[in-house]
């Protein structure tokens, strides 16, 4: 496994229970995030399969399911997936990398990458976004969330665990350009201020894009 994937998996395996508890109620205090997830669900419509790629403990997967979407989650971390299955016993969760998702071409009506691209090195983003387009059906939609900035945030020993990981922050215009290069047309860009109540220290960006062409 590529080094950054191994490091990411080890990090989240170590912090899974504390991470899930810390972020469990985050959507309660972030109404803009809830609104964007609802807008994405309406764009996808009824009947189309959705994948939450990099789903972690399944918090967003479960919320999308509550909006009526047929959704499943995929994640590298076995510990995160164990929590996701425990918290969402009626939903499907599979282990794997979103860089090479085990999903057929054009199989999905929607893809969500909710802060899950933030550990992907910049030079791997074109391949990641091309993969998102590959699994989307023509006209399918992507929702991508990430923190805004030019320098990564490094977390060292979070919750007291002996692990560390970089969290990449990116500029929305740059990300939108990469999505366009991959054949994904950006329909909306939302930028909101950091929410101190949610423990955020940087602006948050949300891009909704649609697969272009056949």
From TrEMBL:
One of its GO terms (molecular function) is methyltransferase activity. SUPFAM superfamilies: S-adenosyl-L-methionine-dependent methyltransferases. Residues 50-140 form the Methyltransferase domain. Transmembrane segments: none annotated. One of its GO terms (biological process) is methylation. CDD domains: AdoMet_MTases. Keywords: Methyltransferase, Transferase. PANTHER family: METHYLTRANSFERASE (PTHR42912), METHYLTRANSFERASE DOMAIN-CONTAINING PROTEIN (PTHR42912:SF80). This is Class I SAM-dependent methyltransferase. It comes from Streptomyces glaucus.
